[in-house]
Amino acid sequence: MFILELSFGEEPDRLAARPAHRERLQALHRDGKVVLAGPFPDDSGALLIFDVPDAAALAAIVAEDPYYRTPGVTITSQREWSPIIR
Predict the structure, then answer these.
(1) Which sequence ranges are marked TM in the entry (predicted)?
(2) pTM of the model as a whole
């Protein structure tokens, strides 16, 4: 599993790109690749948990979604995670 943490700026492009990004996340969730995803209550960023086999698989998901390259969206952390309770 991998954890992706995002930070958000004030750029309006981010909000315009968000609906398509959320649709992609829903599809990935149905495919079992997204476990959890959502913004922080203050909308300063978001946390996403992916169930993918390796960093290359996560990189492919990120590359396919233009949201991660939208002004106002920054990937601040990407870490592999080994949960002991699921």
Answers:
(1) none
(2) 0.93
